[in-house]
Design a protein that fits this description.
- This protein has 529 residues and is an alpha/beta fold.
- It has ten helices and 23 strands.
- Strand 13 and strand 14 form a beta hairpin.
- It starts with a strand and ends with a strand.
């Protein structure tokens, strides 16, 4: 086995992963968000602590870089690893490379530095920290990002990135294609380059430079030599993503073999981990996604009717603004009032629709699916005050809450409403892609924030503690206007900011046929022992 750096030691391994699809003033892309999501997932399985952003504007990209660099060792640590991955549009100007945020608006050369994130700024940030190995991986040479309004001169080029110069010792730079050339966005889920990375990074015992050679060979072969990845290294040690002889990180085939670190994946690609103390029960590590629910609607020809309640802001008669949920007849899981990708949690579904999904999925792949029971949710969330621990306000990357992004496009001043009364920024204005933030100790994502989740149980006030009932008198209700028992919802959502909403012990409720743009669900699967 090689000596030197080997993944799995005690030194930190940190990653910043960004993927930009939805450009406002440039050609949108299909795969960078998928590429970033899959890379973030793989790196987490490789024991990296991942800072993750999708469709990030300039402010979000700079803030993410600052937080990432601040998380790295301040003093030299020769075994620490820092990795930056970016997928999206990029340009070069006068030999310098720039990564393009989704809100960049440029019509002339001189605007480029102010509207983008410089690759040199990333390198300088890494150089100020103490990681022994810094990997900068850019899958961002997509062609022709700009509209015809671009009036730049020949000094600015979207036809690939420039050959970087002046990289410090310990830096490894990889491009998805050769300098001054363009890369393919790909016709499948991932770009050719990222698809090759996902294939080769987890292979045990390979020095990391050999990994990138194998990636280059795959991409060159797949594209008939039209795209040839490039890398340059000033790192003189030894590093493997996976140690020689170690088991492949990832997933297993049987639900009975699933663990927190090796989840079971079903036919839709949903990941499941064991619920602590509940033998024979696995719960989805993430909320049910848009693409999962779409598979159900397409297979059953289900058409949602009746509209949904959407978040809106209205002006108060005496001045100022307030929030409200307004029923819109044309709103649905497909039209929730904001943009959703396939990897976002489905919203605007009723309890009954969530149950129908579980019934269909059981027949679809032959396993027994249902909504989580309250006792299972409690076991999955753990015994600490909040799903992320005891800390309030929540720490960075704890989840998707009412934050600076949520208020960024609202009329009026909402700054005092941000969660915890701090400048919290989780990178998502409304819902976030599932798995975007840290998992809890049992391997489950988004048990706090993102969307409220339907549970199997009827709501009963006694499910809540006397302290909870005292703090929120509405929790003493049990039936709706039709005399039906309410259904339990748990976890809080993107629009919540109260400390009470995120308590691990809180059970909230709503009518079983209610559709809101902050209501979703996840499922469990049962199997025989």
């Amino acid at each position: 086995m090689l000596s030197g750096l080997v993944i799995g030691g005690d030194s930190p391994k940190k990653a910043l992963v960004i993927g930009n699809n939805e450009y406002v003033h440039a050609r949108s892309l299909s795969n960078p968000a998928n590429d970033a999501t899959d890379m973030a997932g793989l790196l987490r399985r490789l024991d990296f602590d991942v800072t993750f952003r999708v469709d990030a504007d300039l402010k979000s990209m700079k803030r993410a870089l600052r937080e990432f660099v601040d998380s790295l060792p301040a003093d030299p640590d020769p075994e620490a690893v820092a990795l930056v991955f970016f997928a999206g549009h990029g340009v070069q100007m006068k030999g310098e490379n720039f990564l393009i945020p989704v809100d960049a608006e440029m019509t002339r050369d001189y605007e480029v530095p102010d509207e983008t994130l410089s690759m040199n700024l990333i390198m300088e940030g890494l150089e100020t920290a103490g990681a022994g190995l810094n990997l900068l991986i850019l899958d961002c040479c997509r062609n022709d990002p700009f509209s015809r309004s671009w009036r730049g001169s020949r000094s600015t080029s979207s036809g690939g990135l420039a050959m970087p110069g002046g990289a410090p010792q310990g830096m490894f730079i990889a491009f998805s294609t050769s300098p001054d050339d363009v890369a393919d966005d790909g016709e499948g889920k991932n770009s050719p380059y990222t698809a090759a990375l996902l294939k080769h990074l987890p292979k045990p015992g390979r020095p990391f430079e050999e990994v990138f050679k194998a990636v280059g060979g795959d991409v060159a072969s797949l594209t008939g030599g039209e795209q040839e990845p490039w890398f340059n290294s000033k790192f003189y040690g030894n590093f493997q993503f996976v140690e020689e002889g170690a088991g492949l990180p990832g997933v297993i085939n049987s639900p009975k073999e699933a663990t927190k670190d090796r989840p079971w994946i079903n036919s839709l690609g949903m990941k499941f981990c064991p619920v602590p103390g509940r033998p024979g029960v696995l719960m989805s590590t993430h909320e049910t996604r848009v693409k999962d629910f779409r598979a159900f609607t397409e297979a059953t020809d289900y058409i949602q009717k009746g509209g949904a309640h959407l978040f809106e802001v209205k002006e108060k008669p005496g001045g100022g603004y307030t929030t409200n949920w307004v029923h819109r007849e044309k709103a649905s899981w497909e039209e929730p009032g904001f943009l959703q990708s396939d990897e976002h949690p489905v919203v605007c579904v009723t309890w009954d629709e969530a149950k129908q999904f579980a019934t269909w999925l059981s027949a679809h792949d032959g396993n027994n699916y249902r909504l989580p029971r309250d006792v299972e949710w409690s076991a999955a969330v753990g015994s600490e005050r909040f799903p992320w621990g005891e800390e309030w306000p929540p720490p960075t990357n704890a989840g998707n809450f009412w934050d600076l992004q949520a208020i960024s496009n609202l009329p009026g001043d909402w700054s005092k409403s941000v969660i915890g009364g701090i400048e919290y920024d989780d990178g998502a204005e409304r819902t976030a892609r599932v798995g975007s933030y840290d998992a809890n100790d049992h391997g489950f994502f988004d048990l706090a924030g993102n969307v409220w989740e339907w549970l199997e149980d009827d709501y009963r006030p006694e499910l809540n503690s006397s302290e909870m009932l005292k703090e929120n008198a509405s929790l003493k209700e049990s039936r709706d206007e039709k005399g039906r028992l309410f259904k339990v919802i748990r976890g809080g959502a993107w629009d919540n900011f109260s400390e009470l909403d995120f308590r691990s012990e809180l059970r909230d409720f709503d009518e079983r046929d209610r559709r809101d743009d902050d209501y979703g669900f996840r499922v469990v699967v049962e199997f025989g022992q």
